[in-house]
Design goal:
The protein has 346 residues and is mainly α. The chain contains 13 helices and two strands. It is globular.
């Protein structure tokens, strides 16, 4: 049962970063606009995110539910000792979602209001991804201390090191990279394509550089994760393959293969996450007292069984529904574009 639950956790993390991360990245890209393309860029982002931005949070909710029911000690430790980054993350999610909703569905479309909504949307996207990275880095930094008696040791030290901070920057770069690459295929405007292409290239380089900073910070702070990573062949292989795919990605971009480009970029990010997962598994997090394993923190067998059944049944309903959602919105979008073109011709 535990292995099945671990599969759902890993799959949810992958899907949240690959799909939801691209939504965050779209907001980050709006902080780096070309003035003459700003309106077009916002329009493309609105059309691309409109049908799925809320649905993508389902993966984060799923992770929380699995940890709460299946692995209570892990959930408790994260929510207590990392409550500051968790609250910061939730504030960013709420602010970003609210701003995007008002910007996308505001019937008045007042210019000043739109600027405020867009600014909140962009800044909260950057804020949220940064704290998401901090939260991830804190899990394996090795500073979680359940026995700490002082406020700093219990609630500040677990996430305030160099590793979480560099991990936050790394996550920002990943999300912006995914967004730029995905958005290349969302527009037919050659100038906008060129803009997203350049931003994608810049952030792909930034991913490699910031990833190196994470390893440098882990070495500087003598993090237990670095030793675990370097001693695991699968982790090293994943990172090497992800780096080599950098060259494949840009060859595909030059040949204007948007579908293959998206798959390649998603594969790169998936390999990075899998490399991290292989290095720490089956541990969920690392404390000052040592790693805490999913097996050690598992709920009673009856609870795990019921949770597994619920996830299996739910997945049968969720995945077809998401596919249908995307299909309906994408097809309707193409239909509207076609009608608009015909009307312009007339």
């Amino acid at each position: 049962m535990i292995e099945i639950l671990l599969f759902f956790i890993a799959a949810s993390i992958l899907l949240y970063v690959i799909l939801g991360g691209a939504d965050y990245g779209a907001g980050i890209l709006e902080l780096l606009p070309l003035p003459e393309l700003q309106t077009k860029q916002r329009s493309v982002v609105n059309e691309a995110m409109g049908p799925v931005w809320e649905a993508n949070h389902m993966w984060l909710i799923l992770i929380v539910v699995i940890l709460f029911m299946g692995f209570p000690p892990i959930f408790t430790m994260v929510m207590i000792h990392l409550h500051i980054p968790v609250v910061a993350l939730l504030v960013g999610i709420v602010a970003r979602g609210t701003a995007f909703t008002f910007r996308h569905y505001d019937a008045i479309h007042d210019v000043k209001s739109q600027r405020v909504y867009s600014l909140i949307f962009s800044l909260s996207s950057l804020w949220t991804t940064f704290w998401l990275g901090i939260l991830a880095g804190s899990l394996w930094q090795g500073r979680l201390n359940p026995k700490a008696k002082d406020f700093i040791g219990a609630y500040i030290a677990p996430w305030s090191g160099l590793v979480p901070m560099t991990m936050g920057c790394f996550t920002v770069c990943i999300c912006a990279f995914l967004a730029a690459v995905y958005l290349v295929g969302e527009t037919k405007d050659p100038e906008l394509k060129r803009y997203f292409w350049k931003r994608g290239f810049a952030f792909n380089v930034a991913v490699i550089f910031s990833g190196g900073l994470v390893f440098a910070a882990a070495y500087w702070e003598q993090s237990a994760f670095l030793t675990a990573f370097l001693s695991h062949p699968l982790s090293i292989s994943c990172v090497v393959i992800a780096t080599l795919l950098f060259f494949v990605l840009w060859q595909l971009l030059k040949r204007n293969q948007p579908v293959l480009v998206r798959l390649t970029a998603a594969t790169q990010v998936a390999l990075i996450i899998l490399g991290w997962f292989f290095a720490i598994a089956p541990a969920a997090l690392i404390t000052l007292q040592g790693p805490l394993s999913f097996y050690e923190a598992a709920a009673p067998e009856a609870t795990l069984r019921q949770l597994t059944y619920a996830l299996c049944v739910g997945s049968v309903l969720i995945f077809p529904s998401l596919f249908y959602l995307l299909k309906v919105f994408k097809l309707s979008g193409k239909s509207l574009q076609g009608d608009s073109t015909e009307n312009d011709g007339k």
